[in-house]
Amino acid sequence: xxxxxxxxxxxxxxxxxxxxxxxxxxxxxxxxxxxxxxxxxxxxxxxxxxxxxxxxxxxxxxxxxxxxxxxxxxxxxxxxxxxxxxxxxxxxxxxxxxxxxxxxxxxxxxxxxxxxxxxxxxxxxxxxxxxxxxxxxxxxxxxxxxxxxxxxxxxxxxxxxxxxxxxxxxxxxxxxxxxxxxxxxxxxxxxxxxxxxxxxxxxxxxxxxxxxxxxxxxxxxxxxxxxxxxxxxxxxxxxxxxxxxxxxxxxxxxxxxxxxxxxxxxxxxx
Length: 270
Ligand code: OMP
Known about the structure:
This protein has 270 residues and is of the alpha/beta class. The chain has a single domain (4-269), classed as TIM Barrel, CATH 3.20.20.70. Helix content is 47%, strand content 14%. It has an eight-stranded parallel beta sheet. Helix 3 (41-53) packs across helix 12, helix 8 (162-173) runs parallel beside helix 9 and helix 10 (215-221) crosses helix 12. The radius of gyration is 18 Å and the shape is globular.
């Protein structure tokens, strides 16, 4: 069963022939000179990136940390960025919320009623009642952290089989078809385990690019049986492109390259 969010996501995948989610994680100190002279540098920077990369994207994922770090102006830039993105391209609020139910209700209202995002990332650590306020938004996407891409996933998640338990729980919580799992690209062998447990839960997969995840291996294990059900996030690899020359040209080339790499890796699997 696909809810409204996952239907919208698959529409965007089809339209742009893309499973590339582009992370909008602006680091104020790294914003190139021309954008710094604008009234709202973060928004000007994001707007240029969105204009250049929308044809390659199936989703955008702003991580709230980078906007909150810029204070009240950053929050304004975030709102403007979200409002600027075409309504056809879903927006995943990377907010990694987690709190007791009554507080989670306020977080969910913020993400969905104020920012009007299509989906959110949440941490399962506080259990089912802490996720209920998000899951009650049946038309939205709720991506639950399952196996994170950072080295610290070896502290609790993997040695205690928490990734397995989270995948099993999310299978049960997915009665509205609005759940997804965040599964990092840096540990494909564990990603495979999660896919075996949750064969029809869509994956949001960060960790390609700056974190060195193995795209070929990820694409071997990530797809659902019908070949769908996953998106690959790249943030710094696109918005902080290497090389010299015009910045937006390099951003466009990087987005085109990851878009193509995903296709090539998929073809190599076939
Ligand atoms: P890059 O490493 O620059 O591509 O950024 C990755 C983005 O994905 C950042 O916004 C991270 O916060 C986020 N992320 C991870 O890197 N690892 C995870 O396990 C989960 C996330 C996420 O929830 O998106």
